[in-house]
Specification:
Elements lengths: L5 H14 L2 H8 L3 H15 L4 E3 L4 E3 L1 H26 L6 E7 L1 H18 L3 E7 L13 E5 L8 E14 L1 H7 L13 E4 L7 E6 L2 E6 L4 E3 L2 H9 L4 E5 H9 L4 E2 L9 E8 L7 H23 L1
Parallel strand pairs: 3-4, 3-5, 7-10, 7-11
Antiparallel strand pairs: 1-2, 5-13, 6-11, 6-12, 6-13, 8-9
């Protein structure tokens, strides 16, 4: 085996930590588990510190290991960014982007825009995973994760794509059968459909006697997929409260009617692109996120004109 460079050894150490074992890191690096272990040991010997505490069950980082992990990620990202910029100087950005996104944004925003992105950047390949769950962006080597709602990933680089509003709505067919709720207390007598995953989404903020109060609903249907709930609302099953970008077409053409507009407090729903530190400088990642921002602004201009 060729002698590993310092950056190679740091890269191996980072993968061991992110994947949780020497064996898992070996699968990604093409080394044997023994080779991975020896690379980490050489790195520790050269630095004169212990980076990992090894037990039969797990690996634990020392304080020095935590410091190297943070700096090592920055170093590796800087190396890749520099190489990518040199390559991009010969032409358009190229390479593969790993994207993670929830189902609603994937359907209503990402999928319609991707054909144009591919025409514009034919040398950028996309690896898109769609899941309504939180993923380990760094551990799973995601380049861009698109999140709807408030952020908790403080270690990631964030760039705001857009801001949506939540809307309470139902179909004309449902309202014809069950009537329209005219005040917050009326919701107790209606069929409500709610998103799972966040308890606060079962509490709808409404003005009562001039004060904003979270009104707890008793949902007849709960689901972790916004599009499923939107389809059920369109079919007349019940009342939903969803991000506007999920149902804006149905609201525009009258298939859904907004409800309680005078008392509903529609808090802003941020939609954000999250990237591991350093990845935002890669030409292909920068091109992808810039493109999403551009398409968002076009959508906003179209909405304002219609």
């Amino acid at each position: 085996m060729n002698k590993l460079s310092a950056s190679d050894e740091i890269g191996i150490f980072v993968r061991v930590v992110e994947r949780g074992s020497f064996a898992a890191a070996a699968e990604e690096t093409g080394l044997t588990p023994s080779g991975v272990s020896k690379a980490v040991t050489r790195l520790e010997d050269r630095l004169g510190v212990k980076l990992l505490q090894r037990t039969t069950r797990r690996l634990m980082m020392t304080a020095e290991g935590e410091l190297l992990l943070a700096r090592g990620r920055e170093i590796l990202a800087a190396i890749e960014s520099t190489e990518a910029e040199v390559m991009a100087a010969r032409g358009k950005p190229r390479g593969t982007i790993r994207v993670n996104v929830g189902t609603a944004y994937a359907k209503h925003r990402l999928a319609p825009a991707m054909p144009e992105f591919r025409r514009r950047y034919p040398e950028i390949d996309l690896n898109i995973s769609v899941a309504d769950r939180r993923v380990d962006v760094i551990g799973e080597q995601i380049d861009v994760a698109i999140r709807t709602g408030q952020l908790t990933d403080s270690a990631l680089v964030a760039r705001r794509l857009e801001e949506a509003k939540r809307v309470i709505a139902a179909s004309p067919a449902y309202l014809a059968k069950f009537g329209e709720p005219l005040q917050p207390s009326d919701l107790a007598d209606h069929v409500c459909l709610a998103i799972t995953g966040f308890s606060r989404l079962s509490e709808w903020p409404l003005k009562i006697d001039g004060r904003v109060r979270p009104v707890a609903i008793k949902p007849a249907v709960i689901c972790d997929n916004a599009d499923i709930l939107a389809e059920m609302a369109l079919a007349g099953t019940g009342i939903v409260r969803l991000g506007s970008f999920v149902i804006d077409d149905a609201l525009a053409d009258g298939r859904l009617k907004p409800l309680l507009v005078d008392c509903h407090v529609s808090e802003t729903v941020p939609i954000t692109a999250l990237m591991p530190p350093g990845r935002q400088h890669l030409p292909r990642v920068r091109a992808f996120v810039d493109f999403l921002v551009e398409k968002t602004r076009e959508q906003q201009r179209w909405s304002e004109q219609n």
